[in-house]
Each structure stands twice: as structure tokens, then as C-alpha cells.
């Protein structure tokens, strides 16, 4: 537990973090990789270049400072981050390294304002927060390893099938090399894939949603090839998977993790996806069809056009076979072929007026996933419709950020 003086000192730094938080976390990552370059193996360097990771960490540090006297308030966020840590095989020995470099960054950015009292308070606070993470993650590691078909660290999987889903998305079917059992994961969870590119100075770790319902035989991930646009770099891992990984190749994989999962409830289910955000919802939809065939489902997918719309046939087939499934498609920029076949329900972007025209009410379980701008729009429109907070579920592909 933290003493009152430490808590008061941490709370006094909240305004400073509001102004300098991202500068501190950006410098933290620079120092971390300078002092411990081997940790580049763990952190997504594309997110580093784009500033996404430093912003996410700044938000987390700020939340911790605001709630330092009631850390239970941020436990949901801690658990969400802990799932990612377990998927990446973060270990207790990593925490002192992070703390050391975070304090160095605070001292460097704040200069004389970082008094010995402030640095001592943050060292104590970080120690308490790190212990919370370590304890939660230890329980997660144990639970993951002892479940049927579970394992710790990484396990080798063979690519048994590679299938193109659209112009930009390809699915990889993965089966364990050891022939052992697979765990029955929760629909919506993800795995981490380790990519060992001989042309790169370090290996890559990337998390991908499992895009089929649990089956006990294989995993499937569906990966969008990230082509560099608007000054952003090509995706190192997605490009490697699309162009270099073939059937028969071996990929190390972590056990399924994640808290963005389908909840056990009866109310109508609304799945709203944008682009590759469709992947966790295929698993959820297939599971509902198998386990809750009487549950009403509204499956809404937004894409640029039909050429990049993945799983069209899968969703169409499930909709035709199940009267409880209602499927809708939105294209922002339909192709000539789309305009000819009219294989969509709306042109443009998703909005509340349209949602209200296809959904019977706001009393449903809403799940959404997709690009950041798409997610912000959906979130704000659902709030405008007065959807209950507990019925709003979402996940970022990458570092989290505020949708308000």
C-alpha cells in the first residue's frame, strides 16, 4: 500500500502528465530501446513509429495517477493490458527494466521540476502497479497452461491451408506440430504469432483475432496486408505473411487471450465491423449459430467496396440458412461491379439514422471493431442513441485510445 504523502505527490503530478505525458512516454521508449535493444523483439515497431504506443502508454500512466488512491477503478484496463502481456510472454523481470527507464524519462523531460520527492513517489507507485500486473498475469499464465490443450510461451504450428478472402485479406489455417489438443477459446479472442524474418534484425510479435469458432482441431487467423499509404510504412509482418509464408511453413504461436469476448446473454446481438475488424465477429457469429440458434443477430459490415470485402459468401450463406441472422453491407466507395450488382445496402458511412432504420431498437448487445475513425463514429452514434454502457463492447487492433 502507498502512504498518504506518496499518493498526494502522485496526484499533484496529474496536471503535468496532462501536458507532458506523451513527451515522457515517447522518450521512455527511446531510452528503453537504446538501453535494451533486445526488447524490440516484443514491441510493435510500426506502432512506435506512428506514435500509437506512446500515446496509449501516456493514457495509461495518466489514468494510474488519477486513480492512485483507488486502483480498483482501473482494474478492467489492467486486465485488458495483462491479456496482451500474457499473449506476448511478458515476464516479471521485464517490469524493473520498464520502471527504470520510465523514471529516467520523467527526470529528463521534466528537468528540475522532477524533484527527488516526485521521483521517489513515482518509483513507489510504479512498484505497486507493477506488482498488480505481475500478480494478475501469474494467474493468467497458470490458467492458460493448465487448461485442456493449453500451453505457456510459444508453440509451433504448421500452416495447413492458406486462402485468399479478398484483394487484401488472406486466411491462414494453423495446426499444432506436436499433434496435441487445442484449447476451447472464447469467440473474439486472439493469438500472438512470432515472425522470424531472416532479413530483419529482430523477430516480430503480432496479435491476430481467431476468425473461426473453436473446433478443437485448428486455429484460423485472417490477415490484412497493410500497404503503406499517407506516409505510413508497409506492414512488416502482414507483408511477410502474405508473400513469404506458404502452406507447410511453421509459425510459433501463443495461447489464445483477450477479454473482447462474446458474453453469455439472450438479448439481440449486433455485430458492427469495418474492414478487417470483421475477423473476431466471424468466430462470434459461427458460435451463436451453433449454440444459440434462436438468438437474433444483426451483422453489419462496412468496407470500401466488394473487392476488399472478405467473408462475403460466408456471411451470405449463414444468413440464408438462418432466419434469425440479418446481414447488412455498407460500401464507402463501391466499384463499377458493385454498382451493377447492387450487392450492398448503403453507400457512404455508417450513421445513426441508418442504424435506426435497420435495427428494431437500442436494446441489444452491441459489439464493434475496425479502423480508429470508424470505431469513434460507431461509439458516438451508439451513445447518441442512449445505448446502455454495459451493452457497448469494442476492441482496438493495436494500442487503445479514447473514443469520446
TrEMBL record:
Cofactor: binding comment: Binds 1 FAD per subunit. Binds 1 heme b (iron(II)-protoporphyrin IX) group per subunit.
Residues annotated to bind heme b: 85
Annotated site residues (Influences the redox potential of the prosthetic heme and FAD groups) in this chain: 84, 395
Site (Involved in heme-bound ligand stabilization and O-O bond activation): 29
Needed co-factor(s): FAD; heme b
InterPro entries registered for this protein in UniProt: FAD-bd_FR_type (IPR017927), Flavoprot_Pyr_Nucl_cyt_Rdtase (IPR001709), FNR_nucleotide-bd (IPR039261), Globin (IPR000971), Globin-like_sf (IPR009050), Globin/Proto (IPR012292), Hmp (IPR023950), OxRdtase_FAD/NAD-bd (IPR001433)
Pfam families: Globin, NAD_binding_1
Reactions accelerated catalytically: 2 nitric oxide + NADPH + 2 O2 = 2 nitrate + NADP(+) + H(+); 2 nitric oxide + NADH + 2 O2 = 2 nitrate + NAD(+) + H(+)
MF GO annotations: nitric oxide dioxygenase NAD(P)H activity
Protein origin, superkingdom: Bacteria
Domain Globin stretches: 1-138
Domain FAD-binding FR-type: 152-263
Residues that, per the record, bind FAD: 190, 206-209, 396-399
Biological function: Is involved in NO detoxification in an aerobic process, termed nitric oxide dioxygenase (NOD) reaction that utilizes O(2) and NAD(P)H to convert NO to nitrate, which protects the bacterium from various noxious nitrogen compounds. Therefore, plays a central role in the inducible response to nitrosative stress.
HAMAP family for the chain: Hmp
Free-text note regarding domains: Consists of two distinct domains; an N-terminal heme-containing oxygen-binding domain and a C-terminal reductase domain with binding sites for FAD and NAD(P)H.
Family assignment from sequence similarity: In the C-terminal section; belongs to the flavoprotein pyridine nucleotide cytochrome reductase family.
Annotated protein name in UniProt: Flavohemoprotein
Amino acid at each position: 500500500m502507498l502512504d498518504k504523502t506518496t499518493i498526494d505527490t502522485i496526484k499533484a503530478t496529474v496536471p503535468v502528465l496532462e501536458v507532458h505525458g506523451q513527451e515522457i512516454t515517447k522518450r521512455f521508449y527511446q531510452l528503453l530501446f537504446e538501453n535494451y535493444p533486445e526488447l524490440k523483439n516484443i514491441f510493435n515497431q510500426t506502432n512506435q513509429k506512428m506514435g500509437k504506443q506512446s500515446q496509449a502508454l501516456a493514457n495509461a500512466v495518466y489514468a494510474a495517477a488519477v486513480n492512485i488512491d483507488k486502483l480498483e477503478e482501473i482494474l478492467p484496463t489492467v486486465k485488458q493490458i495483462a491479456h496482451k502481456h500474457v499473449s506476448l510472454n511478458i515476464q516479471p523481470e521485464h517490469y524493473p527494466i520498464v520502471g527504470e527507464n520510465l523514471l529516467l524519462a520523467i527526470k529528463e523531460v521534466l528537468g528540475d521540476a522532477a524533484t527527488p520527492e516526485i521521483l521517489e513517489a513515482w518509483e513507489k507507485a510504479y512498484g505497486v502497479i507493477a506488482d498488480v500486473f505481475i500478480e494478475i498475469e501469474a494467474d493468467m499464465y497458470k490458467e492458460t497452461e493448465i487448461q485442456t490443450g493449453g500451453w505457456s510461451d510459444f508453440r509451433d504450428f504448421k500452416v495447413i491451408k492458406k486462402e485468399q478472402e479478398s484483394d487484401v485479406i488472406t486466411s491462414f489455417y494453423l495446426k499444432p506440430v506436436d499433434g496435441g489438443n487445442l484449447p476451447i477459446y472464447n469467440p473474439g479472442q486472439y493469438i500472438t504469432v512470432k515472425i522470424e524474418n531472416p532479413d530483419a534484425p529482430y523477430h516480430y510479435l503480432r496479435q491476430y483475432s481467431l476468425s473461426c469458432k473453436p473446433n478443437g482441431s485448428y486455429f484460423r487467423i485472417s490477415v490484412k496486408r497493410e500497404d503503406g499509404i499517407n506516409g505510413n510504412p508497409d506492414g512488416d509482418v502482414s507483408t511477410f505473411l502474405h508473400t513469404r509464408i506458404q502452406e507447410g511453413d511453421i509459425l510459433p504461436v501463443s495461447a489464445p487471450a483477450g477479454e473482447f469476448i462474446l458474453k453469455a446473454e439472450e438479448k439481440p446481438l449486433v455485430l458492427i465491423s469495418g474492414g478487417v475488424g470483421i475477423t473476431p465477429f466471424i468466430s462470434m457469429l459461427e458460435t451463436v449459430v451453433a449454440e444459440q440458434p434462436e438468438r437474433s443477430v444483426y451483422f453489419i459490415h462496412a468496407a470500401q467496396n466488394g473487392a476488399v470485402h472478405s467473408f462475403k459468401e460466408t456471411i451470405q450463406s449463414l444468413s440464408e440458412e438462418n432466419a434469425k441472422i440479418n446481414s447488412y453491407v455498407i460500401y464507402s466507395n463501391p466499384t463499377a461491379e458493385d454498382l451493377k450488382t447492387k450487392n450492398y445496402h448503403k453507400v457512404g458511412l455508417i450513421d445513426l439514422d441508418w442504424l435506426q432504420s435497420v435495427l428494431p431498437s437500442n436494446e441489444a448487445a452491441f459489439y464493434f471493431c475496425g479502423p480508429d475513425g470508424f470505431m469513434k463514429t460507431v461509439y458516438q452514434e451508439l451513445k447518441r442513441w442512449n445505448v446502455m454502457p454495459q451493452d457497448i463492447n469494442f476492441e482496438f487492433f493495436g494500442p487503445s485510445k479514447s473514443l469520446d
